Amino acid sequence: MEYIQGKTMKKVILAVALGVALASPYLIGFKAEEHIKDSYAKVSSNPAFDIEITRYDRGYLNSTAHIAFTMPVEVEAGVIETLTFESEHQVQHGPILWTADGLGFGLADSQMIVGLPTDFKQEIINIDDIASDSLTSFARTSFGGSTYSTITIKPTTLELQDSNLELLAGELHSTITPEGKVTGTGQWQGMKIIESGVEVFVIGATKLDVDQTYILGDVFSPTSLGVGTGNFSISHIRVNGETPDASMNIQDISLVSDSYVEENLLAATVTVKAKSLSIAMQEFSDFNYSMSMDKLNVNVLSELQKLLVNVQSDDPQQQQMLMMEIQQQLPKLLADNPRIAIDNLGVTTSEGDIVSDLLITIDPQKFDAANPMSMMFALQADAKGSAPSAFFEKLGMQENIDALKQQGMVVQDAEQLTFKFSFSDGQALINGVAIPLG
């Protein structure tokens, strides 16, 4: 009897386990739907565009979200057109997944299928020959809410009326966690625009590495604030104009950023470099732009972002209210003595180096929110720079330089032209000489 009862119990347990296994994809589908709708709601909070789930078809193993994307685009000054396209977000329910990244476990696998706007399709002559997998986007979401995604670009040529657009291969991997951690790494071989057999515009190999943590808002919010590191590079950008002076070639471009928050104060650095530049028939090398800022109160920055995002109207009354609210936030921002600096802005020419720097600080003791003009006396700035005079002579600018020297704006120091600028207590000095304002 005990043996029979034992076998019966095993059958019951097996039946329950089988029932749970069979039902779990359907039940998990509800949780996956909740996650996807919540994600699109966050994205749509950005006023720059609108994303709406027009229909959600939930099935047993799979579901499909139908997405409408709308964004206003200024095609010319004062003329706004609405860009609209639709896409499908195909979802496979967990717990066992195999769509996005091989066999695994999680809440859902997703694939995004984007439909091009009709007007854009009509411009592509070979639209029917373009493979459906030319651009693919797969994502896997864990039960904990983290999403790992991969975007892949296959080499594709779009034949347009007057040119061909060649998109080269690329791949981007990213991870977003519920805690606000965002990491990404990717590479793209670039693109070309070809007219009559000539490459008129080229973007070379591109690489990206990002490691950010969002401490205010999330990655989709227009008022978010993330800190961490970023590294972006392009092997070259080339423009072949109709004439040599309309052409450009920039080699080995890089952008490196780093930021952190300590005691609620933000510090950040950004450096942009290029190994060589050929612009308007002039040759340069070792371009460098380094900017830094520190002691910026993150809570005040967040409030300022909200003010700027929420007031989009051209109504003069609303604009006046915005300025008043910004003025009320400024004393809080200035209380910690923030600093903004261009640590280096320079480039090397065949005649020598051009270098400059700038430091801006604000004395909170001299600023009164009730008197906006007091900012003139609170602002302090120091800048200096130098350049070889032969560089300007080569450009045929000697008369301009002579005029600037007569006005005291630049100083001849041997073969160099130099300047020093300072602003303090409402008074500007150029090379030690006071200059009137206004």
Topology (elements, then pairings):
Elements: H1 2-44, E1 50-58, E2 62-76, E3 79-93, E4 96-97, E5 104-105, E6 108-114, H2 118-123, E7 135-141, E8 147-153, E9 156-159, E10 164-167, E11 170-176, E12 181-188, E13 191-195, E14 198-203, E15 206-216, E16 225-239, E17 248-262, E18 265-279, E19 282-297, H3 298-310, H4 316-334, E20 339-349, E21 352-362, H5 375-378, E22 379-388, H6 389-394, H7 398-406, E23 411-413, E24 416-424, E25 427-430, E26 433-435
Helix pairs in contact: 3-4
User: In angstroms, what separates the terminal alpha carbons?
Assistant: 105 Å
Query: What is the arithmetic mean of pLDDT?
Result: 86
Low-confidence stretches: none
- Share of helical residues: 10-25%
Helical stretch tally: 7
Given helix and strand content, the structural type is alpha+beta
Cα radius of gyration in angstroms: 29 Å
Beta strands, count? 26
Q: Please give the largest β-sheet.
A: 24 strands, antiparallel
Given the C-alpha coordinates, what overall shape results?
globular
- Beta-strand level of the residues, as a percent range? over 45%
Protein name: DUF945 domain-containing protein
Pfam family, one: DUF945
